Amino acid sequence: MASSRLVAPELAAIKIHGMTRESFLLRSTLAGAAAYGTLSATGLVTRALADSGGGDVDILNFALTLEFLEAEFYTLAADQVKGLSDDETKLTEKLRDDEKAHVDALTATIKDLGGKPVAKPEFDFGGAFGSRASYLKTSNTLEDTGVSAYNGAAPAIESTEVLAAAGSIVQIEARHAALIRLVRNKPPAPSAFDKASEMEAVLAAVKPFIKA
Amino acid sequence: MTDSALRELADDPSSRKRFFKMLGGAGAVSAATVFLAACGGDDDEAASDSPPPASAVDNNKSDLEILNYALTLEFLEADFYAQVIDSGMVKDPKVVTIAKKFGSTEQEHVDALTATIKKLGGKPVAAPKSNFGPTFDKGLMATLEAAADVENLGAAAYLGQAGSIKNKEVLAAALAIHTVEARHAAALNELVGRGFGGGGGLKGSLPDGPFAKPMDMKAVLAAVKPFLA
Fold it and tell me: Which single residue of A16, A184, B94, B205 has CA 20 to 30 Å from B66?
């Protein structure tokens, strides 16, 4: 699978150095990994296997759900949040456009792999847009969660092209997180190593925003 | 925004423990290689506890090569911040705070990469000899711009290697560092007032638009060459 070039032009242009699909171990190991459960009972690999069912499309659909959430969040924020400075408004619009681009790219990639993109869930952001502070705080949470979600899921990705796409998106999520944190007077990079979250933890974190 | 924004940079929850926990604790890497050996079988390189012979690497980089490349960049970054602080050129306490915080983070990356290389049976490279004088001579703004450049390069460098890393635990570690380099890059872009691609008044930047671009080893090493003695 995934031998075709990615549909999204921005992602198709991205090549990861030294890509050699045949030597990419996890491709062959993931499928049969269940049989080696006792040997694999360590760290992220096991967790990712348990979470994802092993397929890139599952991971991409998980990412797509998060990007849908972020895109809608900033779309609504740009309309509804009062009291943002000009810079903060521009940043909000920029984040909205980036997340929309991520939605489009992930959707195209899932289709390219022969998968079916998940439908956009219905979201409810509660009182997040009631004030500048609550908007920025929620944004901060979503961006940091996004980073940890991609970092947690990426090691289980089989295709180097999909990994390249996920890497190129998560770097932008990290930049978003840093900028929103600066706006909030928070350290942009609070830890020397960003967290990698299990899918379960990520879904628990965003569940309050998902209606259906 | 910048002035007040950077005040709390000193917040520094210790993350080293988490990093090693992510690696699975002591012995996890060798456990992972056992797993990979059991499953992959035919790839001696990733299953070995020692550096592979050059012939086994083929046109691909081994994990140890990649880790030592990353270590070289982290050495350079850590040294850069240390020298900036030592030079006394930074007077603004908020900028001092950033330089110290980012510098200590890069030192943590150095330590973690060194430990990981040893754990995999490799030999960590020595720190490169740096030459930041000409940059410092151009003044504070040029120095901060160089810091932003180096962080953007670091982020692009990690992204450029992600697809080549074979050991999943090493990949997880590289990803955890990659996004921190990206955070640094974004913050420094903000500090030096680089605009978004389209220009305009907004400070801070996401220079790559919605998708970050990777760089390969050759391009990165060429770009940092001016900083090497």
Answer: B205
Q: Which helix (H) or strand (E) holds B35?
A: helix B28-40
Give A24's contacts (C-beta < 8 A, 6+ positions apart).
Answer: A158, A160, B163, B166
Distance from B43 to chain A by nearest Cα, in Å? Answer: 7
Distance CA B214, CA A12 (A): 13
A61-116 pLDDT tens trace: 999 999 999 999 999 999 999 999 988 999 999 999 999 999 999 999 999 999 99
Which residues are CB-neighbours of B10 under 8 A, at least 6 positions away? A187, B97, B100, B101
Q: Classify domain A3-209 by CATH number.
A: 1.20.1260.10
A193, A43 contact by CB (below 8 A): no
pTM assigned to the model = 0.76
d(CA A207, CA A212): 10
Please name the residues in contact with B4: beta carbons below 8 A apart, sequence gap of 6 or more. Answer: A185
Residues listed for chain A: 212
Lowest mean pLDDT among A97-101, A124-128, B18-22, B137-141: B18-22
- Between CA B139 and CA B137 the distance in angstroms is 5
Report domain extents, chain B. 5-227
In chain A, % of residues over pLDDT 90? 69
Identify the helix (H) or strand (E) that includes residue B68: helix B63-87
Q: Which residues of B touch A32 (CB under 8 A)?
A: 39
Nearest CA in chain A to B106: A192
B162-173 per-residue burial string, b: 16 or more CB within 10 A, e: under 16: bbbbbbbbbbbb
Considering the domain delimited by B5-227, tell me its CATH architecture: Up-down Bundle (1.20)
B180 contacts on A by Cβ (under 8 Å) = 174, 189, 191-194
